[in-house]
């Protein structure tokens, strides 16, 4: 399984009959189903069950392609960029490699092309005419802070009208998306994004998804009573949902719709970063990406971005975004979420995150958690 992308295609794999696009889609969803099925069905309650005949935790982790760096952990910044791969309040050393390098490897480019075509995903963007740039939004990667900064400094919002469909009531588009970008913008604007360590991002995703008033999994079926799913419950549910989604996509042999994709991920805050960066343009190709910064290096990488976009030193628009946490809409749920986020990361969670976000680790250059 080392090197096998969760949503990626093996260039050397045999392909079913049909168009090249259909063959690529079938390959990548088959790979996804294989990995998720193995993980969902092969893990016992303690996360160390039969895993393809592997019984040793260390051996199992190597089978997932996990890195084993010995770098010490250090406190992370406060707010949405903070967190830990192994313990509350600390995180692994930030990778030194530019994520744009790993992002543009042939296998990752194939993964994005397959995702754009097979899932018809329409990604959220902010078009910024003032500096001829486009921000590609990734939830739980300082996205709200970045959008706020773009609004204040560059007068740009994803609710501005750049030709996309208007909201029937509000009269303006709800969000600017990749499928409505003009050919001129795609050819002449700089597309940028910021990414985050999948380990810390997952727990932040859990907090926001569960704390929302419209939490998808917080109603007991057939009753009005509300409850708060734990992290183990969420990881198991996500693995099962995604396994069925990609299996059905493979069997049906046709492109999925956006609603089915959102239902598979349960909540948009759980969506993988590679999926968010595979939004399809009007011709079905994944949106271009010219610059990738890391949330863990937000201030430094924002300065690099401003240099890249020609915003000079001394210009007040260079001010970097901050990071922040959302308060819990439901206080009773917030107490459970706080307890879950403060708990030690289990082997089961590490294995789940490594499988669900395999392509994020590989294509964005982050280290998988140690065991």
Could you characterize what this model shows?
The structure is a single chain. The chain has helices at 20-42, 57-63, 99-103, 106-119, 143-154, 183-188, 198-211, 231-252, 258-264, 273-276, 298-309, 331-342, 347-356, 358-364; strands at 125-128, 133-136, 190-195, 291-294. With 371 residues, it is mainly alpha-helical. A 4-stranded mixed β-sheet has the order 1-2-3-4.
What is the number of E strands? 4
The total tally of domains equals 1
N-to-C terminal Cα separation, in Å?
A: 17 Å
Tally the helices.
Answer: 14
* Cα gyration radius (Å): 20 Å
| Low confidence ranges | 1-18, 33-79, 81-90
Instruction: Tell me the strand percentage band.
Output: under 5%
Assembly level: single chain
The helix-strand sequence is HHHHEEHHEHHHHEHHHH
Numbering strands along the chain, what is their spatial order in the largest sheet? 1-2-3-4
Shape: globular
Return the structural class: mainly alpha
Mean pLDDT: 74
What is the helix content? 40-55%
The profile of the biggest β sheet is: 4 strands, mixed
């Amino acid at each position: 399984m080392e090197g096998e992308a969760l949503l990626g295609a093996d260039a050397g794999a045999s392909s079913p009959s049909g168009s090249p696009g259909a063959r690529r889609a079938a390959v990548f969803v088959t790979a996804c189903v294989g990995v998720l099925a193995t993980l969902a069905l092969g893990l016992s309650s303690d996360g160390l069950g039969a895993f393809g005949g592997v019984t040793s935790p260390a051996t199992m982790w190597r089978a997932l392609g996990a890195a084993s760096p010995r770098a010490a952990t250090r406190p992370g910044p406060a707010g949405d960029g903070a967190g830990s791969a192994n313990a509350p309040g600390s995180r692994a050393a930030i990778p030194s490699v530019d994520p744009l390098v790993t992002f543009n490897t042939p296998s990752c480019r194939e993964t994005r092309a397959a995702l754009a075509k097979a899932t018809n995903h329409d990604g959220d963007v902010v078009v910024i005419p003032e500096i001829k740039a486009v921000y590609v939004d990734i939830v739980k990667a300082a996205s709200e802070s970045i959008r706020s900064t773009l609004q204040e400094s560059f007068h740009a919002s994803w609710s501005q009208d750049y030709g996309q469909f208007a909201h029937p009531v509000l009269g303006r588009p709800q969000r600017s998306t990749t499928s409505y970008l003009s050919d001129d913008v795609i050819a002449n604007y700089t597309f940028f994004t910021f990414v985050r360590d999948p380990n810390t991002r997952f727990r932040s995703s859990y907090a926001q998804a569960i704390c929302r008033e419209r939490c998808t999994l917080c109603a007991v079926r057939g009753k009005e009573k509300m409850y708060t799913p734990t992290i183990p419950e969420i990881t198991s549910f996500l693995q099962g949902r995604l396994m069925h989604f990609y299996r059905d996509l493979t069997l049906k042999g046709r492109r999925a719709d956006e609603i089915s994709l959102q239902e598979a991920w349960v909540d948009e805050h759980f969506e993988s970063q590679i999926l968010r960066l595979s939004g399809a343009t009007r011709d079905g190709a994944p949106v271009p990406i010219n610059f990738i910064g890391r949330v863990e290096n937000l201030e430094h990488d924002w300065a690099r971005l401003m240099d890249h976009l020609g915003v000079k030193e001394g210009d007040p628009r260079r001010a970097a975004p901050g990071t922040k946490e959302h308060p819990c809409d439901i206080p009773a749920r917030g107490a459970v979420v706080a307890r879950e986020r403060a708990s030690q990361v289990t082997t089961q969670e590490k294995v789940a995150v490594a499988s669900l976000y395999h392509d994020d680790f590989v294509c964005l250059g982050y280290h998988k958690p140690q065991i």
